[in-house]
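Comment thread on ticket #2218

A.B. wrote:
> Attaching the input chain for the structure job we discussed in standup.
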Amino acid sequence: MARILIVIDMQKDFIDGSLGTPEAVQIVKAVKELVNGWDGRVLFTRDTHTEEYLDTQEGRKLPVPHCIRGSAGWQLEQELLQWQQQEKCPIFDKNTFGSTELARYLAISHLTEPIEEIMLVGLCTDICVISNALLIKAYLPEVPLKVKASCCAGVSPASHERALEAMQMCQIEIV
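C.D. wrote:
> Ran it. Output below, let me know if you need it in another format.
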């Protein structure tokens, strides 16, 4: 049985870059500790946009260029990136909030090696964490899905709490 940790969008632009928050900065150490001590597989997602970001629907609604492929802000936090490269963990680049590619990957993996649990951490609780959690829940409704609240941060503390409550209502365990 596999245990999977998914680290959502722990990128410079979301930590201390163009869309960073003090709450995002505060979770970095806890996320690194969880990754380093995780007994199982670790996967990463990376928000990925092009120079044409402002011409997209997301860019028109959130006109702050961020996570432009190849930019410094697009990179995973430095120590997490080094760990990911050393361990050769998959990264799922996504041009939207949730990754259907990640959800399909998990569903296919579950067929060959049953998944015991999936844990999500990262940024932003109220956008990308919740989007990926709901996609994964739709693809794997019987696999226990958890979100570690202390290793997530939202756009604001209030929206972080609302997202946790919404996920809990969808039978995602908040730990």
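A.B. wrote:
> Thanks. Noting for the ticket: The mean pLDDT is 98.
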